Structures
1.
Amino acid sequence: MNKTLFTLEYPLKSASINILWNLISTPMGLSEWFADGITVKDDREFTFLWEKNEETAFLIESKQNVSIRFQWEEDTNTDYFFEIRIVVFEVTGDLSLLITDFAEPDEKADAIFLWNHLIEILCRKAGM
């Protein structure tokens, strides 16, 4: 079955772009909200640890204070990825996080639920 693309937007009115960037782009920051622990090999291979499970993802793109994109090891021969993007609204200065991910059609609701939960933790860690 093919995975389908979905995008989620999370408005973060009082967020600091520097705090957000550190939380989404560094192993220490990601281990605060995304995984229980993270090891990095060669600055591109991230192994995410959750309790007794681990998954490897490759950093495929990073634009400072803008976005970070990973591809799970199991998806390396596909176009599937997940991306976390910081969007700044020029008029108000407000920020949003834009999540782009792929999921099997019958797993999309679970993936959205998981992202909602993770972003809730991220907001608490960022002091929002």
Note: The beta strands are 4-12, 37-41, 45-50, 53-63, 67-72, 82-88, 95-103.
2.
Amino acid sequence: MSFVEQFDQLPINAHCGTAQEASETEVAAALARRDPGLGDLAALLSPAAAGQLERLAKRSNQLTQQRFGRVIRLFAPLYLSNECINNCTYCGFSRDNPILRVTLSIDEVVREARALADQGFRNILLVAGEHPKFVSGSYMTDCVAALRETVPSISLEVGPMETGEYQPLVQAGAEGLIVYQETYHREVYANMHTSGPKRNFNWRLETPERAHEAGFRRLGIGALYGLSDWRRETICLAAHAQYLLRHCWKSQLTVSLPRLRPCAGEFEPLTNFDDRALVQAICALRLFLPDLGIVLSTREPAALRDRLIPLGITSMSAGSHTEPGGYTGAGNENLHYTERGNIRELAGNASEWTPPADRSTNATGQFDIADERPPETVAETISRLGYEPVWKDWDAAILAN
């Protein structure tokens, strides 16, 4: 049974009812449970549990240190391309958005990666929109192979593929695959994804299983908060994570809880997910799945990120750029402007070209980041809080033995 089949059988409405109506007694029982179930998680997400947030946070802190120690793994995203054939109403890269687009050449990707390596990064996430013409499997394989000597740990966040298409990427040196379901609410998902292959909810939901079969040793999943009710999303995300921990046990698993940020298209969140709810969701996930890695991105502001570190976080991005060429300016000479998926105007000489939307000569980013601190400042803050920033957590030579 794949997770899609299990997902369709989940009593989601019943769990959502618990998440809204759990009593203080039920919350106390969930907190005391040594092996909590999905119903207990729902209770920990309830308004009643919000009244015990300090106790929840303390337990989450204890479990995280027990299972992971006092370390935070640092990574950076490296955007390869903002070309995309999907229309996703919440995404800056959405096909119909009139933005400046570019796909980096292999040499430009190497240039970006070396800039990140110079900052200390040894864990890099390669990100790209879904576009078979610009971001083919062979292009991704060439990128990974070109970076293998510079970057020990390479993960991917790209359009879903078949197992057989993932295998050359693993063989080239990619160790991780990230795929966010965006929303686990089928109706909302259909409304948000109006055209393109991403419309296939089930295909996307089964992606981590195909990636595990292909040999990726790290898997990452998540929901994009602000599209549907946050309690419902967290329950579904937790169920998905629990399934993968049981069935894809050869891979380490992380989850992320990114919140919507301003981007091209000016999409506004459909639901509220405030800071207090974010804390509650992180802590509840930690109590439900103590061995689960939890990722925190630069979507969140610096002060909040610092406060969240002790509450269950195991991995953080730092110094992020969400546009191709963001670290070195690579690719700017090849910028082009698209509208409704069509190239309207070629950049030519970017230094002399004024794009229709503004006077920028940089590729458009996927979204605005909130924590703009340089990586060294983030690392210093982690150390000041009593944690160890980890830039590199393994060697290929160690794995070979």
Note: The radius of gyration is 21 Å.
3.
Amino acid sequence: MRGKTRARSVAAVIATGVATALVLSGCSAGGGDEAPELSDKPVTLRFTWWGNDARTAASQEVIAAFEKEYPNITIEPQFTDWAGYWDKLATETAANDAPDIIQMDEKYIATYGDRGALLDLSTLGDAVDTSDFPDSALATGKVDDALYGVPVGLTSYSIMANPALLEKAGVEVPDDKSWTWDDLAEIGAKVSAAGGGAEWGVAPWGFEDGGLNNWARQHGDALYTDGEVSIKPETVSSWYQQLLDMVDDGTTPPASNIIEKQSGGLAESFTATNTAAFGPWWNSQLTALSDASGSPLQSLRVPTTDGKADGSAYYKPSMYWSISSRSEHPAEAAAFVNFLANSEDAADILLTERGVPANEKIRAYIEPKLSDTDKEVVAFLDGLSEDVGDAPAVTPPGGSAIEALLKQYTEQVLFKQLTPDQAAEGFIKDLKDAIANA
């Protein structure tokens, strides 16, 4: 039960740290609605993000461009992989030592924002220009009308396909506008049979909430409704059963291989190492996966139950730019966020690495400059435009525990320590507890 304990302790650390921060600060930095004044004295800011080597290189290049424009501001980079990012941020927040600029995720924005750890960017006047962002995109960064994050980019859940592995197995890339989960299982089984234990048809799911969210929407369900966990046990159980069936028949790798790969990050994944023909990923990861694999990968729509568009696809903010409410330099932090969100110099470097820009002006600016894979990222989202449904409800405070809980229960399903029904019941109970205790 280590996963459950860890998820609850992280939530407790955040809550304790933010409460302390609010007592000490009295109110968030940068209150009011006028842009704070920039200092002409030396200022040092800390900027944290998660990501792979490609993201880190691009981020450091953007920092250099910003520092050239603002020579009195120094940006100290702080980065890690996804697995360790949130524990570190929770600990820093509890110690009143959060970085000034934070790359924030949808699952955590209400948790941190609701407890006062993030600065309401709407109090900064025009220091962060959001005029080129559609209201629908900005709304995803709001909690009770406070803007706690500027959406960086948009992405959508997808299945990443490896055409070379499919060709090697003698099968064609499926028509993703009409394929079903049964088709995925059938094609995947053929690839695994041809792979002889070295290559498999389908990389597993079960370790993040994007896949569960999509599955729920396909089955007329939802993770959350009105700030409460609303997903039905049978929805979660069927999701796990689908995975377990593919493990049992060899369509996915064995459980031990799956767990080993999970610790290696994107570069060591089945997709990046060309050992699975299909894998669930956010479509914005196409370029990073293609670079890591050295293979021409292709984003496909997620299969549906009947092969028809059903509104289960949705656009998700890939991440946000947020500012710590404890930052001693809100003006300079806002200047950096504004540079990240609106500067053409930053756009030239970042392109679609963090998703197709939510800033419509910047998106139009970069389109002629995109690589072939980046163009595919944009085209995939454009192709979904008539079929996407409304975005899911924002993850409520405490819901950030979901990935730790999914990892815990997925591992127990894979090793048959729990049945899918038992895992579903336990997962829902623990997620409800995490939100109730937030």
Note: Residues 157-314+394-421 form a domain with the D-Maltodextrin-Binding Protein; domain 2 fold (CATH 3.40.190.10).
